[in-house]
Amino acid sequence: MEYTQALAPKTKRIALVAHDHMKDTLTQWCLKHKANLAKQTLCATGTTGQRIKKATGLEVAPLLSGPMGGDQQIGAKIAEQTLDILIFFWDPLASMPHDPDVKALLRIAAVWNIAVACNPTSADYLITSSLVNTSYDYRVPDYSAYAAGRE
Fold it and tell me: Which of 3, 8, 68, 93 is most exposed, with the fewest beta carbons within 10 Å of its own?
């Protein structure tokens, strides 16, 4: 695989996702980091976004519910390189009927080398990093070879 450089802008584009048992945890995390999140561009799936917006007053672009296509919308944003960070509080102890969607979302985030936090501790480290409020060069797959027919 060949790679190229991408540039994450100073204002990060962040997706916020939480499974049912983690929605309160993510909402509380957003309240804790409201000042820093207010400097970023936020989107969130279904009920998660509504709850965060109501509790914090943050501007959150709404997406569909995760199982109804919101996870795929976030995956598309990642693949289109219009998302820089994924904050995804999933419940590791609950069985999920949409588990393949979860795995696909985490996989596409890894493929496109974006920052991912899956719990409050990793999200704390991520949102307080000095890199969050600056432009950031990072490595992404270069699929132009495939588009040019050199598969």
Answer: 93
Please give the angle made by the CA atoms of 77, 83 and 89, to the nearest 5 degrees.
95
pLDDT digits (tens, 9 = 90+) for 59-97: 999 999 988 899 999 999 999 999 999 999 988 877 666
**Catalytic sites, residue numbers:** 71
The whole-angstrom distance between residue 75's C-alpha and the CA centroid of its chain comes to 9
Mean pLDDT of 46-71: 95
The token pair that represents 104 in the structure block = 């696909």
- What residues have CB less than 8 Å from 138, skipping those under 6 apart? 5, 6, 7, 8, 113
pTM greater than 0.70 (yes/no): yes
Please give the Cα distance from 124 to 29 (Å, whole number).
8
Please name the residue that has the structure tokens 């390189």.
81
Integer CA distances (angstroms), 102 to 26, 108, 137, in order: 17, 10, 27
Rg (CA), the chain: 15
Kindly report the number of other CB atoms within 10 A of residue 101's CB atom: 18
